[in-house]
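Figure 6 in text form: structure in, sequence out.
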């Protein structure tokens, strides 16, 4: 399932680095540990986006000027989502980089209609290889139009589906159809504009800094519906629990499929609005 966590921004103009997934990963890991539930201490089957809001770019990174900021969090485990939300909403304020944000309310994004041929966009960079200490392989460039690119994504997806559970070996074996087809027009425009769709990004694990190559471009995925739905909820590629590989449906407005999400101790949008009206009066 996917939820949209809406925060109030206390310091308009505050900023985070252009790529701030590692800061969000540290925040989420801190919340997991703060909750104290040992079964989630090493949990990795989740995914999240970057912070979404009205931004301007400077040498320092992304400056946010909207009154609210959104973070999309996703996992196949509803209990984990609820656990994390309950811990988050015990805090009156959290800080990400230079931003001071206040958890306000939560919405649920419902699963869109997905077929065996779905066009996705990357709302966080797609990473193929898990980094290793003193090894630069994870920074290698692999052509997105190559079979190797699709094969690596297929292998990591099947491994993750097996580790999460809920699929028999017969089902996993039947999911052999898997092909990523990048939008060639988009790639050509990026090249013509001398821009990049593949960059090197920082990643931290147990205080060790790594670097990985991430790809950001629209593509069509040909795969079984069950595989598509798993990817929509859990991300695609490696390092998804570090904030990489979150996707969304192309030409789709996720806010149109969002509804209030109720968890004990977590406010809905209507409750937040009522509280705001009360404070204004």
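Output sequence:
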């Amino acid at each position: 399932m996917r939820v949209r966590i809406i925060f109030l921004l206390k310091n308009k103009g505050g900023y985070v680095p252009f790529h701030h997934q590692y800061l969000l990963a540290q925040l989420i890991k801190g919340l997991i540990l703060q909750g104290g539930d040992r079964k989630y201490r090493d949990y990795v089957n989740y995914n999240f986006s970057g912070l979404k809001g009205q931004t301007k770019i400077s040498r320092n990174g992304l400056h946010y000027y909207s009154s609210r900021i959104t973070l999309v969090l996703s996992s196949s485990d509803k209990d984990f989502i609820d656990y994390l939300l309950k811990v988050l909403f015990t805090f009156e304020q959290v800080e990400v980089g230079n931003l001071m944000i206040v958890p306000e309310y939560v919405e649920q994004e419902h699963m869109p209609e997905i077929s065996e041929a779905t066009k996705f966009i990357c709302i966080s960079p797609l990473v193929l290889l898990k980094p290793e200490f003193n090894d630069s392989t994870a920074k290698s460039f692999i052509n997105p139009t190559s079979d190797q690119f699709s094969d690596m994504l297929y292998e990591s997806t099947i491994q993750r589906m097996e580790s999460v559970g809920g699929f028999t070996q017969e089902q996993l074996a039947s999911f052999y159809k898997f092909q990523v087809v990048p939008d060639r027009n988009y790639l050509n425009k990026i090249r013509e504009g001398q821009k990049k769709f593949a960059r090197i990004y920082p990643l931290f694990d147990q205080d060790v800094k790594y670097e990985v190559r991430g790809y950001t471009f629209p593509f069509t995925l040909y795969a079984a519906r069950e595989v598509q739905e798993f990817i929509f909820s859990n991300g695609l590629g490696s390092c998804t629990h570090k904030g990489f590989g979150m996707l969304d449906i192309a030409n789709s407005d996720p806010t149109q499929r969002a509804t209030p999400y109720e968890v004990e101790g977590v406010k809905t949008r209507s409750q937040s609005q009522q509280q705001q009206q009360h404070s204004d009066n």
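Caption detail: The chain has a mean pLDDT of 91.
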